[in-house]
Amino acid sequence: MNRFSQSNKIFTTLNILVCTVLFITALNWGTSCLAQGNRYVPPLPPPPTPANPATQKPPTQQPSAPSYTGQPAVGTTIDAPTDQQPVAVTELANSQPMVLKAEAYAGQPYGVGKVTFRLSASDKMLDRTGAILIDDVQQRILYPVVSTSAFKAFVENLVGRRNNEPTDVHTVWFLFQGEAPLTISVFGSQQTAINVPVEFVRPRQFDRRVKQWWQSFNRVVDEQIASGDYPPILHVYLKNLIGKRFGLNATDNRKKNLDPLTQTFQLMFDVESLRLDTINDLMTRGVQTQPVDQPLPAPINWTPVKVDNLPPAIKIEPMAQCVPEECFYLRFGTWGHQLWLKRLMEEFGGDLSRMIQARGFRYRIQSKFLDQLALENSGFDDLFGGRLIDDVAVIGMDTYFDTGSAIGVMLHAKASKTLDIRLRAKRAAFAKRHTKMGATIQTIKFGEHSIEFLSTPDNRYRSFYVVAKDCHLFTTSLTIAKRFLESSEDKGSLAKTEEFRFARFNMPLERDDTIFVFVSTRFFQNLLTPQYQIELRRRNRIATDMILLELGKLAANNEGHRTMSIDDMVRSGYLPQGFGYRPDGGDFKIEGDQWRDSIRGLRGFFAPIPDLPLEKVTADEVQWFNERAAFFANSIQSLDPMLVVLKRFELKDNVERVVFDARLAPFGAEKYGWLMSMLGPPLEKQVKTPPGDIASFQASMKGGNMNPQIPPHQVFAGVQDYINPSIDMNPSSRMGLFRTLKEIPGYLGSWPGPGYTNWMPALGGQPDALGYTYSRLLKLWRLQWNSFSILAFDQQRLENLKPHLTLVDTQRRAQIRLKVEDLSQSALKDWANTVNYRRAWQTSVSNIQMLNLAVQQFRISPEDARLVMQRMLDAELVCSLGGEYQLAKTPSGRAIWVSSKWPSFLNPMLPPNHVAPFLTWFRGFELEVSKAETQFSVHGFLDIERSEQATQLPSFNVFEGFGNLFGGKKEKSE
Hints:
alpha+beta
């Protein structure tokens, strides 16, 4: 039997390859655009505000109200709203906030107060974007936060109050300095000033008011972290800063005590929550300073992967002979195939994730490594590259495109000498054009070979070029360049490994796949070596320290300390104890508008991890790695490779079918065994899809370890192609997800018997004569009919299903099946457009909420806020509606950020020409998943409509159907 040993604990969620987005996006389109989108979450109130803790007392004479105008961007003209400005700006009127009540109580180290005010309807846009400000003439107010009663929010959700109808009354809690009366101004489209006397109360009464402010502050922080609309970096920092200053517990409601597998996963993928955890830990416990005197810990002792009974004669492409076995391998096979993916990406601005929806951040992850390699492309290259190049591939030891990856591009030449001359000439011209950046070309000797190195001192450009056996490699890593040369001499070549030969046995060259992706066992093992793991941990600390230093300077400047040293900021609590300690002895600073590390280079263009020697570490780093090594040794003894192939076929009317086939093994099967045990045997029959279903899902399930009493059964679900006239298309409240499920014209069923549909006592009772039971709490119907059990929110929908409930034979055995028809021609199109627009609107607004938070908390100008936040996030803020963020003025002259594509906040309407991104290209999707022993096989296709220009490509095969899809005509052994 030809199969891998049953060692199957790999990181299947590793989305390292741009091509896999083609089918992953289709899998996620429903949740990202429909479930999330059916709500408009109003912007968070303008939370915390560091301020000026000046020691001098304010004058007893009451000054006039302050004029808070902000500063426009340099070179930017800000005019009063005109017809050419965004609709949302023209809605602002000359209306003042109405202060209903204000009170302030003296105390130490700060006083506490609150102000309640009413906004006019014309200030709705300012309210939603967090642009409502509160301050006083002496800038004595600190950390204002809007208080929301938890009970009030619960009642609003219960009665169905909608988030797009916020109350116009706000209560803002704040701290303040001194004991003199306050002159508080509330800034909407106009400003209102009020004199507030400061009262003295008993300590117990004062403590109670401080707790009310602190609870409100924590609630806002927790809500923002949970919403995930933008990275809550400012919230987490301020929460810790304030908590330490006032001796309050900076509680963190996020899940703690994550297992080593999850922690390792977070580190490998540099997830945002890891950065937040690091900020929280450093501000709470400080930096652990230890001598760097320990040798690298021993690597994890993995059980090797074995292949049995593999035929000796398997055809392998020449390029694979030069690929190091510890690299992933993404092969296009022909010049035309890579050109297809390149143009597909260009259709969506270089980011395939925009095929689903516009994002609020632009990271340029997928093109950054090509820039660093100094690879320039022209139309001439697109048209004639195939004459010189026979094959194209991307290889790499990691995929850290956003920080600095060890990655390379390989070309297999038809005319190697001619290609070499042209490439070296282009590199020389490139270096000459970038001499002001310090670009140079030097030669590095490696044995008898020469490696050409084009670079700049800051690593903005870092490109090694080397040739072997008609293979030309551009790589960011000297280690990969050397291993490439060794592999070409049969030293650790991927082509010589049994697992790769087994992959080629199952996916032979004759298939002519458009994209062939193989991720080796050694690739996964290399990511988990002490060198990689400890360096990843250090990089996370470096990025976090850059953010903390930025925030510390902002907080200190806001409080009047504009020339504070790092040591002074540490003593004052702006930075954690021990800040600045680096095990590698490096440091970092801002150059222009970018952070630069003295060892690794510019942030986003760090030197690759394999090129950074790591000989000595701290005792803490040794202990940290050994804890993870022990976990893997006990729970995940070996890692399996991963295989994904894609093949494109021409259909008609500019539609092409991308067929995919993948072999995936789950990581941590023992840990998640309860979930795996819920999958039943492969389905030999399936429920016939009723007419009118636009999407359908079927799966074989059983109770497993969680509910062993539930026998194997078939779960099926569908979404029907019609819109119920009673569906409420207005944005929902916090129960939006549940309401979305109620609005979707779908059903969920099982056969034979109730299975998992028998989960509520109210639905598990005796059905009536027509087979129905009903839950009054959820307003959910259940039909039991001929061994079928089906749930839906609409009884008529279930009644219409009765004539179609039958089973049919399947062509292929599988445990999970998913099918989605062309939504662009369905009755759901308008509904999907509306939901997508809501979500894009909220994403666009969220960026401005973040900027306004920085303006309120640190009293910086709006234009500076954008520069600072983009530098901290290492990303560009973009409007997800396709508009431009621009500075405008309120009627009072205050500068605010708006988008040119925002609709009316008073009467929002769906633009008549708006089309959800996925509706422009998505024309159908099918997926099958089979679990054979320990490995998953994933098969399916995605239909994509291309633009006229994009389809002018080299011709490709006509799709022949599933009969000869996976493995050609060759039968595969089990």
